[in-house]
Every structure is written in structure tokens, then in C-alpha cells.
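User: Good morning. I'm curious how flavin-adenine dinucleotide would be positioned relative to this chain. Could you predict the structure with it bound?
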Amino acid sequence: MSTTEFTVVGGGIAGLVTARRLAMAGRTVRLIEASDHLGGTVASHLVGGINLDSGAESFATRGNTVADLARELGLGDDIVSPSDEGAWLQPVDGAALPLPSTGVLGIPSTPLDAQTIAVLGLGGALRAQLDSLIPWFGRRTDISLGALVRQRMGKATVEKLVAPVVHGVYSLHPNDLPLERVAGLKDRLALHGSLAMAVRSMRSAMPAGTAVQGIRGGINRLVTELAADLTDYGVIVEFERRIDTAEALADLDGTVIIAAPGILAPVHGRTVTLATLVLDAPELDAEPRGSGVLVAPNCTAVSARALTHSTAKWQWLKEHAEGRHVVRLSYNDEPDNLAEVARRDAEVLLGVSLPPEAVVDFARQQWIRPAALTASERTDGVVVVGETVGGTGLAGIVAHAYATVDRLLAPADEDRADDDPANDDPADDNADAAETRKAKKLK
Ligand SMILES: Cc1cc2nc3c(=O)[nH]c(=O)nc-3n(C[C@H](O)[C@H](O)[C@H](O)COP(=O)(O)OP(=O)(O)OC[C@H]3O[C@@H](n4cnc5c(N)ncnc54)[C@H](O)[C@@H]3O)c2cc1C
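Assistant: Good morning! Here's the predicted structure, ligand included:
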């Protein structure tokens, strides 16, 4: 008889937190991972001798889910906020401008403020202001974010403000982002009747401080600690085993939880290529574009869609880089000769000269960002966690995985007899081991 109660397929952040939660509840868990390492899109690479995140580099503070997880993993003292430096926008033509600081996903909460007028022009800003006069009849909300913003605030707001920001966050044009995927916006729109008001209300509901945070040393430290916890809690981890047929899935033991895109349906996602440059460029000490630049679609001056000046964004990284600068650019369509294109794009976007000799090191990393599973791709009774169902970003994915585990454990827990000694030992012993490890780390 099988002793594995749960098999989790996929060792990205979704699979890791799911396996950990189940094991913490005393369940026997096996985790199967196709590659030779854990973490999926939360990963690291060494560039110019600096260990850097090569995928996710921050988490949304919404709900405190990821910060609480980091604290549980003993990383509480290393949670950091980004610098106050705002981001900039590179319009289709002309010079970069500061991104208005009062919006959500680029949607302005005060369309007639000076920063928004600078980006949209007076005509575009007045059109956006019309949002406050157009009644909201609770029309169809199964539309894209782009369609909604266009209806309420006009095309300029979509293309000049929302598209660069949405692309930076989701690697998508707002026309391809279902409104449903923007947590909270639909409900607040129904409540307040205007998009600007909905955005204002979302901002006031955000926890004090920044909307995102990071971890000193990189988000990838979550994976190291989660992996150590899996060992402590007795999870069996199998590497280099790919589950990609219905038969292979059916052969797995216990309740199977899919935490890997591409098993229930082919991954129809977008490719994102990251170019990371470590630069010896004192001109960047002044941090000319704050934490980075978001690029308007159709901007022909550069091929990159966004640039993060990582050493301006994260103080810990600035200290760690010892005077060098880390810049990360993202591309939808990878250009030929990425290293050279990235250097030239960085020059344009940052507005400084960066000759080839300023480049200390360069790294390329390609990712596929999976689309959400459609209703027809979901199979009744199959448990799925991760980006294809939990939304983009660690906060949503972790919260969804927790809710899934709670749902899976609820009926079973009611049935498990408190006095069954078989239920006592493993969880308590494993929890003790994990606590001991964390206590040692805190010393
Ligand atoms: C460039 C980039 C930057 C990002 N930045 C941020 C950010 O700053 N903040 C944020 O919150 N989010 C960010 N994200 C999004 C976030 O990283 C992802 O949403 C999240 O990490 C996805 O986790 P996951 O576990 O669902 O999937 P994945 O990370 O994709 O993990 C899936 C795992 O399953 C394994 N697997 C795949 N197929 C199989 C199979 N057939 N059998 C067995 N195993 C399999 C894979 O090897 C992988 O380990 C970023 C994403 C990218 C690409």
C-alpha cells in the first residue's frame, strides 16, 4: 500500500509552499521536479561575481502573505523595501519622464495632476478626467483591462501610461490582460463607479509603505530555505523526473497536486528574455532614472520593454556591488546580439554614455510566462496550484496554494482521530527539526 498521501508535481514556489504546508500538517509528501533544482522562476545566477535573482526579484506586500512566509523561514530580519526612487516612463518618442506616483498599474487616480499631464498631454489628461463623469452601469466586466481603461479614460491613458506599466508587471499588453486578473479592481469599480476613485481606494487599502518588498541577498533565498524545510519535514524530493503524460500522472501516489504549467494543457505563454548587465559606470551613481524605466509599446528607440536599475532600487545590492551598477532589461522578442543591444538600450533609457568597456559582465536568461488555464483546460477533480491558476506573482500564488491546502486538509482533519498515535509522531518531530534549524540561524 502507498505511504505517500500527496504527490506534488513541480518544484517552483507554488509546489514548494504546497508541499511544505502539507508536510507541516503531518502528511507524507513527495515532490517531483523535472529539472535538477528547485525554485522554477525564482532563481539566481552569478553575474560579475554577484549573486543576483534571475527571475522574480520582489513580492507584493498585499496580504502580507510572502513577508509572513519569509518570517516563518527565518528571513524576517532580511525583508527590505525598495528605495524611494520612483520609476520613469520612456514614451514612444521624446525623453523619458517620471511615472506619476499616484496610480495603480499606470491608471491615474488624479488625471489632472502635473505628472500625469506631462505624460498624457492636456488633451489626454482631460479625456482621462471624463471618467469621473461617465456613469458606471455595472456593464460587462469580462473584458480586458485595456478595453476598460480605453472606455473610461481614453486611448492615450492606455497606450502612454497603462501599457508600459502592465507590460513591466505581466509581460502583456493591457488589451490581453483580463480585468479579472487585476486583484480588487473590478469590485472597487462597482463600489465607486469611477476608475480613478477605484484606484484611489485601492491605494488607500494598501499596507503602509511600499507595494513591493524584497529580501536582502535576493528573493531566491526563499527557495533555499523552503528546500531546507522540506528536508526537515521529511518531504521526498525527486529531481529530473518529468511528468507529462496522463498515464504518468495516473501512476502517481496519493492525491496529486499539479504545480507545473504544461501538464494539463500545452503552455501557451509568452517568452521573456532578461539581459543583466554589471557595469562600471560612475555616471550611474546619480541614478538618473530612479529605480528604472518602463517603455511604451511601439517605442522604436529601444527594443527593451523595461529596464530596472537594480542597484538604485535595492540598497543591499548597491552595498554588495561595491560601486558597480546592476541593470536588468527585459525583452519580448529577443534581438540578435542581445548583449550589444542591451548595452545600447541601457544608454538610451538611462540617458548616459555606456561604452563597451563599461560592461563588466553580461548574462542572458529566458523564461516562459504561462497563460492562465482556460475553463476548458481545467479538469474536474484535478488539483492545480501555481501561476496558471493563482495569478501572476508570488503573493497571489502563495495565497492560492495555502487556500488549496486548507481545502484539501479540511475534511481529512475532521476525520483524523486525535488519539491516533500514528498522527502524532512525524509532524511533531519534523516541526521540532525545522524550529531547531531556524533557531540556530537566528543566533
Ligand atoms: C522575468 C520574471 C520576473 C518576475 N518577477 C516577479 C517579481 O518580481 N515578483 C513576483 O511576485 N513575481 C514575479 N514573476 C512571476 C513569478 O516568478 C512567477 O509567477 C512564479 O514564480 C511562478 O511560480 P510557479 O511555482 O507557479 O511556477 P514555476 O516557477 O514555473 O515552477 C514550475 C516548476 O515545475 C517544473 N516543471 C515544469 N513542468 C514539469 C513537469 N512536466 N514535470 C515535473 N516538473 C515540471 C519546472 O521545472 C519548475 O521548477 C516574474 C516572472 C518572470 C519570468
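Residues 9-15, 32-35, 40-42, 55-60, 242-244, 259-263, 272, 274, 367, 369, 386-387, 392-394, 397 surround flavin-adenine dinucleotide (CB under 6 Å). The chain has 15 helices and 17 strands.
Let me know if you'd like a different ligand tried.
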